[in-house]
Amino acid sequence: MDWGSLYRDLITLFVVIDPIGTIPIFIAVTAGMAPENRPKVALIGVLIAAIVLYTFLILGQLVFEALGLALGSFQIAGGIILFLFALQMIFGPSKPEEELNQAKSISQSAVFPLAMPSIASPGAIMTVIILTDNHGHSVLEQTATAGLLLGVLVFTFVLLLLANPILKLIGTSGASVISRVMGMILSTVAVDAILNGFAVLNVIDLNH
């Protein structure tokens, strides 16, 4: 097992799920709720996001392959989507700012925008499919990646339970800065995914 690859997968999952950027969303969703109800909202939100992400992790590639899509093309498309997502994180309204505005206009719900699109974002869905490619990774490696995803989701749940003191510590501006830094990291990951997609299609040789 390639431990370096697993470490990169962990960083990638952490970046696209962005647990820290989800904190302001959770606070907005649970505003006015009784303190004893907030852990329930956090648990439901994370569980729904987990169901969505693991469904795509298991069935996503099978669906795309059933449509006759080449793996390399899928990796390139995924990399482009991730790159656009990263640009939005860097130059557009940051995740906390953008989704917090959405949260103010809807009823307090664990489904939207907490579970989707905050935790199980389009970028996160695309990422779990790419990181568990059936042709490029063994069953053991895919299982390890699934375990890493579980770890990130559990970490997200813990952060949501600690949302109020964390936000007081870093502030909304701090969460915005962290989200933009993660966007820069994600853009690098996206470019790497695009290059690997071209390599799979034998368009370029990454060894030279």
TrEMBL record:
NCBIfam families: NAAT family transporter. It comes from Hirschia baltica (strain ATCC 49814 / DSM 5838 / IFAM 1418). The chain crosses the membrane at residues 6-29, 41-64, 70-91, 111-132, 144-163, 184-204. It is a multi-pass membrane protein. This is UPF0056 inner membrane protein. Pfam families: MarC. GO terms for cellular component: plasma membrane. Belongs to the UPF0056 (MarC) family. It is found in: Cell inner membrane; Cell membrane. Keywords: Cell membrane, Membrane, Transmembrane, Transmembrane helix.
